[in-house]
Amino acid sequence: MTVSTVVDGIDQIQFEHVRVFVLEDMPREGAVTLVDTAFDENGAELVDILESEYGRVDRVILTHGDHGHHGGLSHVVDAFDPELAMPADESKLYEHLEEAGIDVEPDVAYEDGDVLAGNIRVIQVSGHTEATSALLLADRDILISGDVLDGSDRGGLPAGYLLPPPALFNADHEAAELNLYNLLGHDFDTLLVFHGSHVFEDPKEKLDAFLVEREWNEWDPRTD
């Protein structure tokens, strides 16, 4: 497990198979927002590093229902009692929490297009899961992917580009690609991913170029 600064005010805590993000001074000075909580087996270590590095967690935002993104939630809730924001329509997430016996209710149950405190806009891209959510830090033109996109090197390609998650991990791979068009209506110049390498140079243009190559698909909306 390692802790590093990605950009000013945003750190990542890297575990073996996944990372989480820590947003400092968000939504207010001195506040700490944690985006996702890794796997259950990472929970105790996650709490230790949060206590030692930040001293507090004021809010947790969960992006979707995969175990590697919410598994450590009970550890974080027990340690810090933070405000909890979760996607309202992500049935996989609520089912997993119920199966694990985790009795929590979100303080904020968000939907596509909602703006969370700190001017964080929710952009949902269904396909990977029912309501996989990317988070746009609108004041900084930074997009946190929430498994909407991976770094291309996750798939063995050169770093610096973007791909949808592998079909193996998607509930509906066609939708996971098609719905990426939802991102192009927003401005961002940095894209932070949970798997693979972040993209700091022209991520929106690279995403658009990837989608152009899908024009041969009969389900591309630009063929209508």
UniProtKB/TrEMBL annotation:
InterPro entries: Metallo-B-lactamas, RibonucZ/Hydroxyglut_hydro
Organism of derivation: Halobellus clavatus
Pfam families from the UniProt entry: Lactamase_B (PF00753)
Lineage: Archaea, Methanobacteriati, Methanobacteriota, Stenosarchaea group, Halobacteria
SMART domains cross-referenced by the UniProt entry: Lactamase_B (SM00849)
Residues covered by the Metallo-beta-lactamase domain: 17-198
Protein name: Glyoxylase, beta-lactamase superfamily II
